[in-house]
Amino acid sequence: MIRKHSATLHGHRTSFTLEDVFWDELKLIAETRQISLAGLIAEIDDNREAESNLSSALRVYVLQWIKSQRL
Predict the structure, then answer these.
(1) First-to-last CA distance in the chain?
(2) How is 37-56 classified by DSSP, letter by letter?
(3) 69 vs 48: CA distance, rounded Å
(4) Which domain holds residue 16?
(5) For 18-51, what is each residue's pLDDT tens digit?
(6) Can you tell me the distance from the alpha carbon of 18 to that of 44, in angstroms, rounded to the nearest whole number?
(7) Domain containing residue 38: CATH number
C-alpha cells in the first residue's frame, strides 16, 4: 500500500508518498545507523539530485542500502 507521509526538514514541513515496504525499510535503516528517521530523511533530501523528487530519492536510497548490505 502507498501512503502519504510528512516530515519537518530544516524547519519546513514536507510530504511525500511511499509504499509501506520502503517506509519500513527506512525505519530499520535509521535504527541500524542509530539516527532519527527525520534525520535520515533530511540527509537523503540534502544529497538528492536537484531534478529528483523526495519520494524517488527515498526509494533509491533504500535500494542502494539493501544492495550494499549484500556485499
Answers:
(1) 29
(2) HHHHHHHHHHHS-TTS-HHH
(3) 21
(4) 1-67
(5) 999 999 999 999 999 999 999 999 999 999 998 8
(6) 14
(7) 1.10.3990.20
